[in-house]
Specification:
By secondary structure, this protein is of the alpha+beta class. It has one domain. Strands 1, 2, 3, 4, 5, 6, 7, 10, 11 and 12 form a 10-stranded antiparallel beta sheet that branches. It starts with 10 loop residues before the first helix and ends with a helix.
């Protein structure tokens, strides 16, 4: 049986589960130490010597809240306390049920069991029913007609050439990018942790997954002009909010929420993408993260979202994805063996 990602992975599904890539286990400290938000007396936000709010610390965007609003909630932008509690309970039950699935089907491959996943998942502190805030329905806007055609062509290419070479495997399988790397910074089913270090001149964001680090100048200049997987960022202050604009993506990350391959040739749509992020430390234990994605190469209009990120004690351990990625050579060697067997049978 060939190992392959589904031909189409929805963004909502990607934020809940992603096929196993045979990497080494990473830390679960975010799930264990990030407690539900509790109401507390207002206190001063930490600041640096220059008076700017200090974003430094360990932060988690782990949440049970879906990326897109479920169609059944329609125009319900916010959840009640009871609905939020049910969302958390249902999310944890699904995670634990994945272990039952493994017990009942021990030879099944393609997904992590509950040992790897975030068991303690919380509704967003603001009780929103989705991470997306714009459009108002909480759903991604439609793709452009051109993007729909390109997407279908890429999917067909991947169907015909699943594992001809490394380039035909996704950037997730190759330990290059993950949805949590950003921008925008979005949660997955585990390891939703970040270490932010701020100085007078720079802000660095270390993402646990794939251990990517973004270094963002705070004086308005870009860090580099060379296209990057996570783009080139520049920042400015608007009062106590740090606004980060990122462009110049290398065009190889793929369709947003759908890890793509390079084998089809040509640039991927994210080469035209601009992401605007807003970081506001609203309290010592909350970092409000807001973002807008303007991607005319894919979507008919921009879309936005927000996540109040919770602090946790840390640390964030290295996620040794490349070092432990035995999946890629095994998948490729398995495909070569299948080809040889098919050729032998044909004779």
């Amino acid at each position: 049986m060939k190992y392959r990602l589904p031909a189409l992975i929805s963004i909502g599904a990607l934020l809940v589960t992603i096929p196993v890539l045979a990497q080494t286990p990473a830390s679960k400290q975010g799930a264990a130490k990030v407690a539900p938000l509790k109401k507390s007396a207002a206190s001063a936000v930490p600041r640096l010597a220059d008076g700017k709010p200090d974003m430094s610390g360990f932060w988690s965007n782990n949440t049970a809240t879906p990326f897109e609003r479920p169609t059944g909630l329609a125009a319900k932008e916010f959840l009640s306390e009871e609905e939020a509690t049910k969302l958390e309970t249902d999310s944890r039950d699904r995670t634990r049920a994945s272990d039952v699935q493994k017990i009942e089907h021990p030879r099944e491959v393609g997904d992590y069991n509950a040992v790897f996943k975030e068991d303690a998942r919380w509704a967003l502190p603001n009780k929103r029913s989705s991470i997306i805030t714009e459009p108002k329905d909480g759903r991604l806007p439609p793709m452009t007609p051109e993007a729909q055609k390109k997407f279908a062509a890429d999917q067909e290419y991947h169907r015909l050439h699943p594992h001809d070479g490394p380039e035909d495997m996704t950037t997730i399988e190759r330990c290059i990018t993950w949805i949590t790397s950003g921008p925008p910074l979005l949660p997955s089913f585990y390891n939703n942790n970040y270490h932010i270090v701020q100085t007078r001149d720079h802000l660095s964001i270390v993402a646990e997954m794939i251990h990517d680090t973004r270094i963002i100048p705070l004086d308005g200049r870009t860090q580099d002009v060379v296209p990057q997987w996570t783009g080139n960022s520049k920042a400015r202050w608007e009062g106590d909010t740090l606004v980060v604009e990122t462009t110049n993506f290398n065009g190889r990350r793929g369709w947003f929420g759908v890890p793509m391959v390079e084998g089809g040739g040509g640039k991927r749509p994210d080469a035209k993408m601009k992401v605007t992020e807003r970081f506001t430390r609203t309290s010592p234990d909350i970092l409000l993260y807001q973002f807008t994605v303007d991607d005319p190469g894919i979507y008919t209009k921009p879309w936005s979202g927000e996540i109040p990120m919770r602090s946790f004690p840390g640390p964030v351990y290295e996620y040794g994805c490349h070092e432990g990625n035995y999946g890629m050579p095994l998948i490729l060697s398995g495909s070569r063996a299948e080809e040889q067997a098919a050729a032998k049978k044909a004779k």
